[in-house]
Specification:
This protein is α+β, with helices and mostly antiparallel strands. The protein has ten helices and eight strands. Helix content is 63%, strand content 21%. Helix 4 runs antiparallel to helix 10. It is elongated.
C-alpha cells in the first residue's frame, strides 16, 4: 500500500511539473526587459566585462599600497675562471667554484605624489668558496626619488581612474542597450503575431467573400472579373498567412535567444503599454547626457593621454636627476650568530644626473609632435561636444514628434477599423463592389500596422533617450 501511495505521489508531481513546463509564458514589455537584464546573454557579457575592468582597477590601485616580497636562490652555483688580484699587483686567473643561498624580504611603497619609492629590506646569504661564511643585512631602509623627471606614477594613476570611470559609464550603457534590444525583439514578435492574426482574419473574410461571390456569379449578379478578383484575394491571403507564420517563428526564436529561454518555450505577449505623454526639457536632458554618457569622457581620456605624452616629451628634453639614499646594518661571519651579533652600520647616498647635450633636435621635435597631438585631441573634444549636444537635441525633438505621430496613428487605426466594418456590411447587402471592399481592407490593415510601428518607434526612442542620459525622466 505504501509503495502504491508513493508511486501515486511521484506520478502526480511529475505530471504537475510537466504541466507547468507546458504552460505558455506570458510576457509584458516590462517583463521582457527585466528578464533580459536578469539572465540575457548580453547583460551577462556586460557584467563580465565590467567585472574584469573592476578587478583590473583594484589591481592597479593595489600597486600603490605597500608590497611585501620574498626572493630566494635555493641553492645557487657558480663555476668560472675569475681574475684574482695578488699582493704584488699582478693578476692571476684561477678556476673558482662557489655555492650560495640567498634569502631577502623586501617591503616597497610607491610615492605617487613625488614619483619616488621607499623600501625596507632584510636579507641573509650563505656562501661556500671554498670555506663557509655568512653575510647578513638585518635591516636597511632606503629611498629613491627622481628630480626634474616626468612623474609616471601620478599620470598613470589619473589615467587609470578615468578609465575605470569610463568603464562604469560603458557598463550602464551596455545594460541600457540590453533594454533597447529587448524592446526591438518584443515588438518584432508582437508585430509578427499581429500580422498572423490579420492574415488569418483576412483569409477568413476573403474565404467568405469568395463563397458569396461564387453564389452571386452563379445567379448572374456579378461579373466574372469580380469573381476572379475575390478568388485572387483569397489566394493572396493564404500566401500572406504562410509568410506571416514563418516570420513569427523567426521572431520568437530571436526573442528566446536574448532572454536565454529554450527555443521551444511557448510565449504569449501582452499588448504593449500605450503612450505616456512626456514633456521633456532639452536643457535638463543635455546636462544629464553630458554628465552620464560615456561619449565625452572617452574624448576627455584621449585629451588626458595626449597631455601626458606632452608633459613627458617636455621633461625628457632637460635635466634628469635621481637621489638614492639608504641606511642600515650588515655583517659577515662564519656562523649565523656572528652576522647578527653587533652588526656594522652602512650608509649610501648618491645623486645621479643625465643632461642631454646634443641630439639633433630630437627632443624638440617630439615635444612639438606631442603638442600638436594634444591640440588635435582638444579640438576633437570641442567638436564632439557640440555634435553631442546636437544629437541630444535631435533625439528629444524626434521623441516629441513621435508622440504626435502616435496620437494621429491611433486615431487612424480606429477610423480604419470602423470604415472596414461599414464597407463589409455594405458589400454583404450588395451596395458596394469587391474593389471598394478590398481597398477598405487594405487601408484597415495599413492603419493598424502603422499604429503598432509608431508605438514601437516611440518606445525605442524612449529607451534610447534613457541610454543617452542614464537617468529616469
Amino acid at each position: 500500500m505504501q509503495k502504491i501511495l508513493k508511486y501515486i505521489i511521484i506520478s502526480t508531481l511529475i505530471a504537475w511539473t510537466w504541466t507547468l513546463m507546458a504552460q505558455p509564458m506570458v510576457l509584458s514589455l516590462d517583463n521582457c526587459i527585466d528578464l533580459a537584464q536578469e539572465q540575457g546573454p548580453e547583460a551577462k557579457m556586460a557584467r563580465q566585462t565590467f567585472n574584469a575592468a573592476s578587478w583590473n582597477h583594484k589591481a592597479s590601485e593595489a600597486d600603490y599600497l605597500p608590497q611585501l616580497a620574498l626572493t630566494a636562490d635555493l641553492p645557487g652555483l657558480v663555476r668560472a675562471i675569475s681574475s684574482v688580484d695578488q699582493d704584488d699587483g699582478s693578476v692571476l686567473f684561477r678556476a673558482q667554484s662557489q655555492t650560495f643561498s640567498r634569502l631577502n624580504l623586501t617591503l616597497n611603497q610607491k610615492i605617487a605624489i613625488t614619483g619616488g619609492e621607499l623600501y625596507l629590506s632584510s636579507g641573509l646569504n650563505r656562501i661556500t668558496s671554498p670555506g663557509l661564511y655568512w653575510q647578513s643585512v638585518p635591516l636597511i631602509v632606503g629611498i629613491s626619488q627622481p628630480l626634474f623627471q616626468f612623474n609616471t606614477q601620478r599620470w598613470n594613476r589619473r589615467i587609470e581612474n578615468m578609465q575605470f570611470h569610463l568603464a562604469e559609464l560603458q557598463y550602464q550603457e551596455a545594460l541600457a542597450d540590453v533594454n533597447i534590444t529587448a524592446v526591438q525583439r518584443f515588438f518584432d514578435v508582437y508585430i509578427a503575431q499581429m500580422n498572423v492574426n490579420l492574415a488569418r482574419l483576412n483569409l477568413a473574410v476573403n474565404d467568405s467573400i469568395y463563397t458569396i461571390s461564387k453564389g452571386r456569379y452563379s445567379v448572374g449578379k456579378i461579373a466574372e472579373n469580380d469573381l476572379l478578383q475575390s478568388e485572387l484575394a483569397r489566394m493572396n491571403a493564404e500566401a500572406n498567412l504562410s509568410n506571416s507564420l514563418l516570420e513569427l517563428d523567426r521572431a520568437l526564436r530571436n526573442l528566446r535567444i536574448i532572454l536565454d529561454l529554450p527555443l521551444d518555450k511557448e510565449l504569449v505577449l501582452e499588448d504593449p503599454p500605450a503612450m505616456a505623454h512626456r514633456d521633456l526639457n532639452i536643457d535638463r536632458l543635455t546636462d544629464l547626457a553630458k554628465s552620464n554618457s560615456s561619449v565625452l569622457p572617452g574624448y576627455e581620456l584621449q585629451l588626458l593621454q595626449a597631455e601626458r605624452a606632452l608633459q613627458q616629451a617636455k621633461s625628457n628634453r632637460w635635466l634628469d636627476a635621481n637621489i638614492s639614499a639608504s641606511w642600515g646594518y650588515n655583517k659577515s661571519g662564519e656562523t649565523i650568530d656572528d652576522v647578527y651579533n653587533d652588526p656594522f652600520d652602512t650608509q649610501r647616498f648618491s645623486v645621479g644626473l643625465e643632461v642631454p647635450l646634443f641630439n639633433w633636435g630630437q627632443g624638440k621635435a617630439r615635444e612639438y609632435a606631442a603638442l600638436t597631438s594634444r591640440e588635435r585631441a582638444r579640438t576633437n573634444l570641442e567638436m564632439e561636444s557640440r555634435q553631442f549636444e546636437e544629437d541630444v537635441y535631435y533625439q528629444v525633438s524626434q521623441f516629441r514628434q513621435l508622440q504626435q505621430q502616435l496620437l494621429l496613428s491611433a486615431k487612424s487605426d480606429t477610423i480604419g477599423a470602423r470604415q472596414f466594418e461599414v464597407t463589409k456590411n455594405r458589400y454583404l447587402i450588395g451596395r458596394v463592389d469587391i474593389t471598394n471592399l478590398l481597398r477598405a481592407q487594405q487601408e484597415k490593415d495599413a492603419a493598424r500596422k502603422s499604429y503598432i510601428q509608431n508605438l514601437r518607434s516611440y518606445w525605442l526612442a524612449f529607451y534610447r533617450l534613457k541610454r543617452l542620459t542614464l537617468a529616469d525622466f
